[in-house]
């Protein structure tokens, strides 16, 4: 067994792959906000998915208990990760499979290339896989003369459009059906020139195109939603049946799985098979769930491999505040409720993992001190909708605040960093001083009428000086009330002789 130093701070991966933002989020998002068609596509798609999810989740009286169970199982798996990975390797190998260990994207890509070349094939078919997108496998293989064909409909659209995925569950969510028809007409060999944008016609065109690949491919590459340590079993869930074709027809099957996907027991699937379909596609049951354990003579692929990928996961595991990000089951529920994602789109995050989960997972994998992802922890309003939607209860807002704090500390500790406090530092220190004492807070509240006087006729403050100018560049601030709640309460107590009233300036 090629061991990985689990639970200890890992060395920086030599090649991150596609988990680094290519442009700071603020500048990319500002540009995307000008794309009205993109925003319309995202709004329609995310609202449709989240409305379906709400309906099917409301049917389960024990939904919150299921969330607790899912969170507990993933926490146990992270706590026992070295032991469970060793058990998985033992069981997978005993059943005829081969296990490979990859420290980073570069090593994983080399392993997969070597396995494909050993078959003599120059083509592979692929199941939708976040892990292979993360390591940039398609681009790597193409540069070396090996063609990788995506078989998931949305992934096929992205690939034919020379595009990048923008959503974990629906990679082509930023495209509407007219745009998809145009891509098929332009890029798909042999397609009917009279093709319309009717969804059924588009799906049938993709089916005819892919059927030839399924029947001729000797090698398939997949990801994995789960790996069961107890039995050495791998699992993929999907909605179209393309995955089932990839997992059963070729002679060689190569799976790339992040090490955090391992679960302790087969019975744990009972929890996630209820959480995942409802949270992702808004379905009660997943249409296609494929499980395989090693290889079986006369049934399915003869040569079965799994590449267990680290690529920064041990680094994230060592962060006690952020390690719960590894609990993610890639359902995308957090994206579908996020107001920032809905307006900026997935490409603005630059990483394979967009949305709220990407804003924490990508920096944790690469290190928040790295330049690659330093703006992502700020790509959130901290509204908390993602935490409420997460089926395994990842507290994304709390981790975002933690990562922001780490970023500030890292910037202050860099050689040559400014030693004098910034405007923001002084403002926060002043706010802390004032708000930690009732009497001080009372003095501050006496300035409320001045704030109200600074407002315009519409009752809002549209321009602030100094540090506050950044806030008012893109938003108006409601004018403060003429009187604070504490002052109103004190007045009420005085007028009504209320024994529970407090005097202005009292309390903490």
TrEMBL record:
Compositional bias (Basic and acidic residues): 495-508
Disordered, as annotated region: 488-508
InterPro entries, A to Z: 4Fe4S_Fe-S-bd, 4Fe4S_Fe_S_CS, FTHF_cligase-like_sf, Helical_ferredxn, LUD_dom, LutB/LldF, NagB/RpiA_transferase-like
SUPFAM superfamilies hit by this protein: 4Fe-4S ferredoxins, NagB/RpiA/CoA transferase-like
Keyword Ligase: no
Start and end residues of each LUD domain: 85-309
A single BP term in Gene Ontology: lactate metabolic process
Molecular function GO labels: 4 iron, 4 sulfur cluster binding; metal ion binding
Stretches assigned to the 4Fe-4S ferredoxin-type domain: 325-394
Pfam family, any one: LUD_dom
Keywords: 4Fe-4S, Electron transport, Iron, Iron-sulfur, Metal-binding, Repeat, Transport
The organism's place on the tree of life at top rank: Bacteria
Matches recorded under PANTHER family: LACTATE UTILIZATION PROTEIN B
The name this protein goes by in its record: (4Fe-4S) protein
């Amino acid at each position: 067994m090629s061991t990985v130093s689990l639970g200890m701070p890992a060395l920086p991966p030599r090649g991150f792959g596609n988990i680094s933002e290519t442009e700071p989020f603020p500048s990319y998002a500002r540009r995307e906000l000008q794309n009205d068609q993109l925003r319309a596509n995202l709004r329609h798609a995310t609202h449709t998915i989240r409305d379906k999810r709400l309906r099917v989740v409301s049917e389960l009286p024990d939904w919150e208990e299921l969330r607790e169970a899912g969170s507990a199982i993933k926490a146990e798996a992270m706590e026992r990760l070295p032991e469970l990975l060793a058990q998985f390797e033992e069981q997978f190998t005993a059943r005829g499979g081969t296990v490979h260990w990859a420290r980073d994207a570069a090593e994983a890509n080399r392993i997969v290339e070597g396995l494909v070349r050993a078959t003599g094939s120059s083509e592979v078919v692929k199941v939708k896989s976040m892990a292979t997108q993360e390591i940039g496998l398609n681009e790597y293989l193409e540069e070396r003369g090996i063609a990788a064909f995506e078989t998931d409909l949305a992934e096929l659209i992205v690939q034919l459009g020379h595009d990048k995925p923008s959503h974990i569950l629906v990679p082509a969510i930023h495209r509407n059906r007219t745009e998809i028809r145009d891509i098929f007409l332009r890029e798909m060999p042999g397609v009917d020139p009279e093709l319309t944008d009717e969804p059924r016609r588009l799906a049938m065109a993709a089916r005819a195109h892919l059927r030839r690949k399924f029947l001729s491919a000797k090698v398939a590459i997949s990801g994995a939603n789960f790996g069961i340590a107890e039995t050495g079993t791998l699992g993929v869930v999907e909605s179209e049946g393309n995955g089932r074709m990839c997992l059963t027809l070729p002679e060689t099957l190569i799976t790339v799985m992040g090490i955090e996907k391992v679960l302790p027991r087969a019975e744990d699937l009972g929890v996630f098979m209820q959480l995942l379909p409802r949270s992702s596609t808004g379905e009660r049951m997943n249409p296609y769930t494929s499980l395989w354990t090693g290889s079986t003579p006369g049934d399915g692929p003869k040569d079965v491999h799994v590449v267990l990928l680290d690529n920064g996961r041990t680094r994230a595991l060592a962060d006690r505040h952020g390690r719960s990000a590894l609990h993610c089951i890639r359902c995308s529920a957090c994206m579908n409720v996020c107001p920032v994602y809905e307006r900026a789109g997935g490409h603005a995050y630059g990483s394979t993992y967009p949305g709220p989960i990407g804003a924490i997972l990508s920096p944790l994998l690469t290190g928040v001190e790295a330049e690659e992802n330093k703006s992502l922890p700020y790509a959130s309003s901290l509204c908390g909708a993602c935490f409420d939607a997460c089926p395994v209860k990842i507290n994304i807002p709390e981790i975002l605040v933690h990562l922001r704090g780490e970023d500030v500390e890292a910037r202050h500790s860099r050689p040559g960093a400014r030693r004098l406090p910034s405007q923001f530092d002084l403002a926060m220190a002043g706010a802390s001083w004032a708000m930690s004492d009732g009497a001080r807070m009372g003095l501050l509240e006496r300035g409320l009428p001045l704030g109200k006087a600074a407002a315009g006729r519409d009752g809002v403050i549209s321009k602030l000086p100094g540090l506050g100018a950044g806030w008012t560049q893109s938003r108006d601030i409601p004018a403060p009330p003429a009187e604070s709640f504490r002052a109103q309460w004190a007045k009420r107590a005085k007028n009504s002789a209320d024994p529970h009233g407090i005097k202005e300036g009292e309390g903490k």
